[in-house]
Design a protein that fits this description.
single chain, alpha/beta, six-stranded mixed beta sheet, five-stranded parallel beta sheet, 16% strand, elongated
């Protein structure tokens, strides 16, 4: 228990530069509280204890604003930054060294039975407000941009952005631990920019054709005037 507590405190210091003291983490970090309460609830869930794990989960939700089903399996050095509005479903599986920001949902897509929530690999970063839905796998060393909606599996060493989520490969290169929101690719924005540039080119071509047609109409009139 003390080893888990120590490791979780070290994780907060590593992931959040705003953390200044152990006492501050113990008293003021809802993500820290939610994870510790989930560890307890999950252990009781695995032992088959009725009702109590769900009660602990509900107490954690009321205390922290973070909802983690006691059946979810979460690896080591997991960290939720800020945390308000995070939802993690029953059959979710999360690897080691995963970072979640506020408003993230790891949920299902319907009323199906069995494995219905995502499996998250190691060293994954999921940005604020992102939704990862269904029985899909998110590979190792993946970044999911803020506000993305991911409904398909994602390969290792990838970045996902947009609605629905689009994968941008970073083949053979390990991604950083932090999610640099300002450096994420924007495929929708790029597509709009390409269309705008193409429209400008077409407008220039139309203008050139109109000028040629106007010149062609003026020339016969000039020739007629000379003959007169």
């Amino acid at each position: 228990m003390f080893r888990t507590l120590k490791e979780q405190i070290e994780t907060v210091f590593r992931q959040d530069p705003a953390a200044r003291s152990v006492l501050e983490i113990l008293l003021c970090y809802p993500g820290f509280h939610a994870i510790l309460l989930h560890r307890l609830a999950h252990k009781l869930w695995c032992w088959g204890v009725p009702l109590l794990p769900r009660l602990i989960s509900q107490f954690s939700r009321a205390l922290t604003g973070i909802e983690i089903h006691p059946g979810a399996r979460i690896g080591r050095r997991f960290f939720i930054d800020h945390g308000m509005g995070v939802v993690i479903g029953e059959t979710t599986e999360i690897g080691d060294d995963v970072l979640l920001y506020q408003g993230v949902t790891l949920g299902g897509t319907g009323k199906e039975k069995g494995k219905r929530h995502p499996t998250i690999g190691n060293r994954v970063v999921i940005g604020a407000g992102a939704k990862v839905l269904g029985n899909i796998r998110i590979g190792n060393n993946v970044k999911i941009g803020a506000g993305s909606v991911v409904i398909h599996s994602v390969p290792d060493y990838s970045t996902v952005v947009g609605i629905p989520g689009r994968v941008v490969r970073i083949a053979g290169v390990s991604v950083n631990d932090e999610l640099e929101h300002g450096k994420l690719p924007d495929p929708e924005g790029q597509a709009i920019e390409d269309l705008s540039r193409r429209l400008e080119q077409l407008e220039a071509q139309v203008q050139a054709l109109l000028q040629q047609m106007s010149a062609a109409q003026v020339q016969p009139q000039a020739n007629k005037a000379e003959l007169d």
